[in-house]
């Protein structure tokens, strides 16, 4: 534990996450449901029946294992469990990051407490979670001045990163959500050509993810899509603008010295946050999450048509 430090690059969510010295890994404090989700995912057969299709696992950060911090002080009276995951930002130099929470229904009927259920119903009704099945939870963008209201953002002067907080996403509506998504892609000094390519690549990924989720029997309440792209133009030039839609399988390389795969990544899309997720064999796909992805696909398609 003493070799770990605070993870600085969260787009949203709670504190308490950690990373190692090389920042290869991401440690998240979790409760039992999230541990169960990751271990069940690991126990599933690798890949789907059809090898050409992506499986759910391909969209989720690699799960390395579980780390338990013993409470040696006796003060907290309990141990903290961390899932140890691949750090999705590995290989990026100056990533821009956006967290979008999926679903109209933000709670799991089987586990939610009454007070929490009421609160989450209200959050959904008052935001694009309810109208579109997704909501921007936060963004973290590198060194870019925007006209946004100051109550929505905070500048970290040490790193020059701006964090756009949850109140920005909560105040978006069906009429201005497209601009909010555009904003995320516009907040860099990358060439226009790259910006359009990025939006097109994320559209392809969303379509592929939609197909994966149609074949997956899970319920993922309050999980998120994490969008990441490189804003350092020199990395795009170095890699000849070759932004892979899906990174190669990096399972065996994750702890290797071989950095090739990570060095090749210029943008990526992943599912994260399984605190309220579970496998539901025989119950069909997660309609609640699919609606949000459908609406995102529509917005990215519109964007693409505007750029033609
Ligand atoms: N594997 C990962 N690699 C890099 N960054 C990550 C990874 N997983 C999550 N993050 C970052 O951390 C943030 C918070 O993660 P997550 O959503 O899992 O936690 P949370 O919302 O605090 O969780 P919970 O709902 O369990 O309280 C995300 O918005 C994202 O920016
Ligand atoms: Mg989250």
Automatic annotation (TrEMBL):
EC number: 2.7.-.-
Domain of life of the source: Eukaryota
GO CC field: cytoplasm; nucleus
Keyword ATP-binding part of the UniProt annotation: no
SUPFAM superfamilies cross-referenced by the UniProt entry: SAICAR synthase-like (SSF56104)
Enzyme kind, highest EC tier: transferase
A GO BP annotation: inositol phosphate biosynthetic process
One term of GO molecular function: inositol-1,4,5,6-tetrakisphosphate 3-kinase activity
Keywords assigned: Kinase, Transferase
Gene3D superfamilies xrefs: Inositol polyphosphate kinase
Classification via Pfam families: IPK (PF03770)
The UniProt record lists the keyword Transferase: yes
Classification via PANTHER family: INOSITOL POLYPHOSPHATE KINASE, INOSITOL POLYPHOSPHATE MULTIKINASE
Annotated family: Belongs to the inositol phosphokinase (IPK) family.
Protein name: Kinase
Species: Saccharomycodes ludwigii
């Amino acid at each position: 534990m003493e070799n770990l430090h605070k993870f600085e690059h969260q787009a949203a969510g709670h504190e308490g996450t950690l990373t190692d010295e090389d920042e290869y890994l991401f440690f998240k404090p979790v409760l039992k449901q999230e541990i169960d989700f990751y271990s069940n995912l690991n126990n599933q057969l690798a890949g789907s029946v059809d090898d050409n299709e992506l499986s759910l696992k391909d969209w989720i950060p690699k799960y390395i294992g579980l780390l338990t911090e013993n409470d040696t002080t006796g003060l907290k009276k309990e141990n903290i469990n961390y899932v140890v995951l691949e750090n999705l930002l590995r290989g990026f130099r100056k990533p821009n990051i956006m967290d979008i929470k999926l679903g109209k229904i933000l709670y799991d009927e089987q586990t939610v407490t009454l007070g929490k259920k009421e609160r989450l119903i209200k959050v959904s009704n008052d935001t694009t979670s309810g109208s579109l099945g997704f909501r921007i939870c936060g963004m973290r963008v590198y060194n870019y001045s925007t006209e946004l209201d100051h109550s929505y953002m905070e500048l970290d002067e040490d790193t020059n990163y701006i964090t756009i907080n949850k109140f920005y996403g909560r105040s978006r509506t069906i009429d201005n959500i497209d601009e909010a998504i555009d904003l995320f892609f516009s907040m860099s000094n990358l060439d226009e050509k790259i910006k359009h390519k990025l939006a097109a690549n994320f559209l392809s990924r969303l379509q592929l993810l939609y197909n994966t989720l149609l074949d997956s029997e899970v319920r993922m309440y309050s999980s998120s899509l994490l969008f990441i792209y490189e804003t350092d133009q020199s990395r795009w030039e170095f890699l000849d603008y070759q932004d892979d839609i899906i990174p190669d399988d990096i399972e065996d390389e994750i702890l290797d010295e071989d950095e090739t795969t990570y060095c090749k990544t210029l943008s990526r899309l992943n599912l994260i946050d399984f605190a309220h997720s579970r496998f539901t064999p025989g119950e069909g796909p997660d309609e609640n999450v699919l609606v949000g992805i459908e609406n995102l696909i529509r917005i990215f398609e519109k964007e693409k048509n505007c750029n033609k």
